[in-house]
Structure formats: C-alpha cells, structure tokens
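Duplicate of #3305? Posting structure anyway:
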C-alpha cells in the first residue's frame, strides 16, 4: 500500500504538453457537487484501430472554471474553435491503471486571431503560410541583392 501511495505521488508530479486541433470544450455539473469539463482534441487516424474511421479524438479533463475563462475569450473574439492549441497537462493514474490527462493551462498554438494579415495567407489555397519569408515548394526565390544601400 505504501508503495502504491509513493507511486501515485510520483505520477502527480508528471506533466506533458499536448499540441493539437482542439475541436471543442464541454463541461458538466451533477447535483452541484460533481463538476468538471473536457477538452476534445483530434488527430489524424493512425490506422491502429480498425473500428475507427476519420480523426481520432483524445479527451483531456479540464477544471470546471477553465470553461468559463475560455467562454469569455470566445465571446470577446479572442478565441475560436476549432483551433490549434498548446495544453499543459498533469498526468494522473486513473481507473484500470490508465493515465488520465488533466489540463493545467491552455493557449493558442500559433497566431492569435486578428494577428493574421492578408499577406500571410496563400491566395490559391487559403492556408496560412508557415513563414512568409519561405518560398513555396517548387518556386525558386528571386535573387536578392545583399549589398543594397537601403538595407539596415
């Protein structure tokens, strides 16, 4: 028993960062005592589960209060779903000796809404360019004059 307590306290100190497409946030409240929430993250299908078609979903536990914080950001236009996010999670031991991820914090992974400019968007695909200084695949960049007197 003492060994199990020591193991659980060790697991309580473990953390990981999840980066992925957050599809939605949900929360629940049962009889006012039992409350919590979930973060639903999708990832491309690995093909390991023949009983799954489409993206795989990962459920991360979320504190009840975090839902209200994120809802306020959505209402203020600072956050939208789905979006790419970075989630700091604590790893705990759950039922059947499975790891349970619980969110400690989450933030947008990439440009914040309103920070994307037209020049950062590929006009042919509508995708956000990963780095506006990088050339598109298959396109040869024009030579640059590095001895320009106007260059700082």
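Output from current build:
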């Amino acid at each position: 028993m003492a060994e199990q307590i020591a193991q659980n306290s060790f697991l309580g100190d473990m953390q990981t960062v999840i980066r992925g497409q957050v599809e939605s946030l949900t929360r629940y409240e049962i009889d006012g005592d039992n409350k919590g929430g979930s973060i639903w993250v999708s990832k491309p299908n690995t093909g390991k589960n023949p009983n799954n078609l489409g993206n795989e979903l990962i459920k991360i536990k979320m504190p009840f209060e975090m839902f209200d914080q994120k809802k306020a950001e959505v209402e203020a236009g600072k956050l939208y779903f789905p979006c790419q996010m970075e989630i700091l999670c604590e790893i705990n031991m759950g039922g059947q000796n499975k790891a349970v991820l619980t969110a400690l914090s989450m933030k947008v992974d990439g440009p914040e809404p309103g920070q994307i400019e037209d020049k950062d968007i590929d006009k042919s695909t509508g995708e956000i360019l990963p780095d506006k200084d990088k050339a598109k695949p298959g396109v040869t960049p024009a030579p640059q004059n590095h001895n320009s007197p106007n260059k700082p």
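Confirmed duplicate; merging threads. Strands lie at 15-30, 34-43, 56-62, 83-93, 99-108. The radius of gyration is 22 Å.
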